[in-house]
Amino acid sequence: FPWLQKLEENAGVVQQELKEALAMGEMLEKTGNNVWVGALTSEGAAYGPDWKTLVLQDRAWDETNARIFPKTVELLREIGAPTVEVFFAKQKGKTGIQPHSDGCNFVLTAHLGLEVPEGECWIKVGGQKEEWRNGKALAFDTHYFHETGNASDKDRYVLLMRFWHPGVTPKEREALQYVFDALDGPQAQTDMDFEYLNGLAEAQLASRRVEEVEEDG
């Protein structure tokens, strides 16, 4: 991926901002939003209590945390990274993530090694094992079962990015984004009205079909 290569070439920018943020100590937690929190999804049991994140983007950019890492956010925008999620991921020493699947293949995952005890930290995806390197990126499909390990005594930090699979068309992205937005909507969160959500999704897809027919005609 060309954008990922550009990110590698400028990895020092991200590494320096992370170093400065970590040097803030307790002030980082007071200044930032949800700093170093555990997994909140159903896969939380696989991640365990020692995997923590600091989110920059979860579909929308976190303005509070973006102000702490302005150069990192600017870099990702400049290189045209097609991300839907971006966050710093910390893995405590002598811990790991158990095998699990993210359950979707329309979004891929990339890691940029930032502060890694090299030779002691690894990730295995679909049976293939790789090690993180400082300033180097790895990209993979996490719908395959994957797991990690940090055998060192130090914390391991990477920049984790989830981005659209290049095979997903712009219209498919738009439709998926529409469903994401519906799932985040207040009615979905309060009433869990899945019939309502299905209606929204069907209406959106029907609209797309009409547009395609008109374009073809």
From TrEMBL:
Keyword flag Oxidoreductase: yes
Keyword Transmembrane helix in annotation: no
The name this protein goes by in its record: Aspartyl/asparaginy/proline hydroxylase domain-containing protein
Family: Belongs to the aspartyl/asparaginyl beta-hydroxylase family.
Record-linked PANTHER family: ASPARTATE BETA-HYDROXYLASE DOMAIN CONTAINING 2, ASPARTATE BETA-HYDROXYLASE DOMAIN-CONTAINING PROTEIN 2
Keyword line: Dioxygenase, Oxidoreductase
Domain called Aspartyl/asparaginy/proline hydroxylase: residue spans: 8-166
Cellular component GO terms, alphabetical: membrane
Recorded GO MF terms: dioxygenase activity
SUPFAM superfamilies xref list: Clavaminate synthase-like
Signal peptide: none
Superkingdom: Eukaryota
Pfam families for this protein: Asp_Arg_Hydrox (PF05118)
